[in-house]
Specification:
The chain is α+β, with helices and mostly antiparallel strands. Helices cover 33% and strands 27% of the residues. The protein has a 5-stranded mixed barrel. The longest helix is centred in the N-terminal third of the chain and has 30 residues. The chain is elongated. It starts with a helix and ends in a 6-residue tail after the last helix.
Length: 156
Amino acid sequence: MRAKRRNKMLLVLGLVALCAVAVGLTLYALRSNINLFFSPVQIAAGEAPVDRQLRAGGMVKEGSVHRDSDSLDVSFVVTDYVDDVEVRYSGILPDLFREGQGVVVVGELTGDGFIAADKVLAKHDENYMPPEVAEALEDAGYSPADYKQAGPGTSQ
């Protein structure tokens, strides 16, 4: 009887160990695919990882959009009205992209302090603001509701 009990216990411990290894490998593989959201304040404070995929958001700063006339390269500044971060993107911007509107960019923060964006996501109607952008604005002391009342194109 003792031998059977010992064999069962070893089998259960082996299965638990295999499950632990499988979970550990899965979490390790997913670690590189997570892109966390950072506001310009967090990026300026050095909280954002350099050369890793991330999401950043805020409002497109008025007068900051610069398009290259010979290519699809665009640079603009994303702000949370406390700090700013430059974004460089090569591609066609969404139709709803414009200055004074909320955006979320997906890309990598470079060592030079700008974001090399792979995607630019703009809000889809005049009442929508991405939740991450709204939260970042509230953390910076601005109310997204106040911004909506002021309307785009007005200075804050």
